[in-house]
What does this fold into?
Amino acid sequence: MDIAFIDNVLFATVRTATPLLLVALGVMISERSGVLNLGQEGMVLVGAALAFIAAYVTGNMGWGIIAGAFAGMLVSVLFAFIALSLMANQVATGLALTIFGTGLSAFVGADYVGQSIAGLSPISIPLLSSIPFIGKAFFAQDIMVYLSFCLFGGLWWLMRATRLGLIIRSVGENPEAAHALGYPVRKIRYCAVLFGGAMAGLAGAYLSLAYTPMWSEGIAAGRGWIALALVVFASWRANRVLFGAWLFGFASILHLLLQGYGYAISPNLLAMLPYLVTIIVLVIMMQRKQGGSDAPRSLGRPFSPSR
Amino acid sequence: MRIEKRLQPSRAMVLLSPVLALVLTLIAGALLFKMLGHPAGLSLYNYFINPISDWYGVSELLVKVTPLLLCAIGLMLCFKGKVWNIGAEGQFIFAALVSGYVSLQLMAVEGFWVLPVIIVAGALAGMAWAAIAALLKTHFQASEILTTIMLNYIALNLLLWGVHGPLKDPDGYNFPESALFADHTLLPLLSEDYRVTVAIYIALLMLAVVWFVLSKSIFGFQIRVMGESAGAAKFAGYKNRLLVWSLLLFSGAMAGVAAVSEVNGPVGQLIPTLNLGYGYAAIIVVFMGRMHPIGILIASFLLGLTYVGGEMVQIEQGMPKSIVGLFQGMLLFFLLACDLLIQYRLVLPGFGPIRLPSDRTKQVAS
It folds into this structure.
């Protein structure tokens, strides 16, 4: 096992973790504000489809990224309106968003299956990228990976050290009290959901512009759902979300490693690994916490200011 | 326009909401077709009426209704007990794999017991897959929403492994498909001219059984109590774990039978794309059907129509087949939105609250 090999493994881990990190950070914010949006998978798919189409049509990756984030945000408005304004069951509304998003993305992307684009190319940062082990993984990635690092840093700081972070948390813990203090609970939740939508859309954009620069139906392959589990695993904390995303990223490339070593296991069986790891991690976390007491207290409960 | 809370939930709206949702879906669908440059009227006709304009079309609708209804029967019980089993899809796929394997093993064996064995194998496989989620929920407190979804992806990969590997037809020119099942392992057709099998009778029978259990038995009562108030169920001494297990196992069995109805019916072999999303569509069936046996029977016809209609506009107008998912998603979205009117009513400025006839009689009574 030489240094180049470890370099490559870390590089691939960070790359694979990026879409998970993006979705999970968005989930963290919306769940911290008390909204359980199970529509992540649908939003990622819509983001991926629209990002690819925009990049293909304009030939500009930047427009692709923007289109992906914007598309994710746009479909999250549907969820926000029905779950927050019309106070529908959040579990059912989230499922509806996933079913709708899966259909919508396949529908608008139908003409683009099999088309190819150049994709995002890596940008090596001089000097830093030649550090052994971490250089390639952290400083020779594409722009969206750097963007995900910045977003992570910003959100970590937001939730840990700012007044806004505290307000978001209070809305998720006790919306009645936050309302009594004069905070616009529903508006804050709307913003959190829309932010989550944009993050899921970005993750989709990463998948169809950088990870595999193409569009295919169901390209998200459950990453939206894995991100939801990841946030439970991370106890709704940004630094643990980052760590968890890397762990899941590693689990997802494990099959490439095993194949590289010549283990003759069917690729279909190995493709199960990330899902298996998700279940195992969920179980372990629940054992340690005895029932998820870290969850924001009003998670999934509708709030009506008139009460 | 604003909304105000009703004094009591409107029973009429419970039934009207799905109708309203369907109307809104049709309007949105018409706009969508128009936007894409297709004539709206003709497209809607092709989607919702043309497919069932002859007996063959109706029979094809029944082919879709069978697995949808079977999955929905199980999910209805789960959702009534607030067990969020999103895994009918995975239970369906795993059962398809197992019953498909059994069917292939019994190719050369004739006997009256062959089909029952295949059906039981499918039901048991579906139960086994659901049992994983039950175990994780009752003994490890893992959310069944996430575990069942993960199990869906795992089941799909297992199926892919099966058709690419051990179950691949050796004479199949290397296509990832199993051999065609022997005739005696296929469910009997109702008529030689159509693809409907006796599985539709099994579905209707199970629907009747579940209706009886829900309305007449203490078990059905316990499910309802657990769904409405977990605390009350605990206080009453109901065995919560046992209920969760029975609900998940039952719905797993139903998804398993649904898989047999599909694989040993119209499909007739194991293929990578045998799941058309019935497990997810059945969730919409349960919500549209108001978690009531008669309701889900009607709703399974509607959702079945979204499939055959989707195929029709695909053939007639060259639409992508994914329009099915789009219509199904819209249906559920509009339904959830309309359900607001069960608890609330619209108040138009200058007109006062919009009342349904049933509201008025209730107010007189009170």
User: Anything to note?
Assistant: The mean pLDDT of chain A is 88. Chain A touches chain B through 49 residues (CB under 8 Å). The radius of gyration of chain A is 19 Å. The longest helix of chain A spans residues 3-32.
